[in-house]
Amino acid sequence: MKHIHYDSLRFSFQKQLLDRMAAKLDSAEFKKVKNQCYRDYSDGFYVYCPSSSHQSTQDGVDYIIRYVGRPAMAQSQIED
Fold first, then answer.
1. Where are the beta strands (DSSP E) in the chain?
2. Could you report the per-residue pLDDT of 56-65, keeping only the tens digit for each?
3. 66 lies in a domain?
4. Residue 75: inside a domain, yes or no?
């Protein structure tokens, strides 16, 4: 896989994350934070995508699917 459109990935990640947080928090205070995030991070949120050695598009898709459902950090670290 030779190309990932990083701009689209950053914007998509930002929108999905903020929308999901807003759905759970559903507060006027978070709406202000969400709007501020869009202003402060107009290029989207940073995403780490190391160089890939995947030989085919299917290899890349399999790699992404493997990690999509996994949390970035343990829930215990978030709650502490």
1. none
2. 778 777 877 7
3. yes
4. no
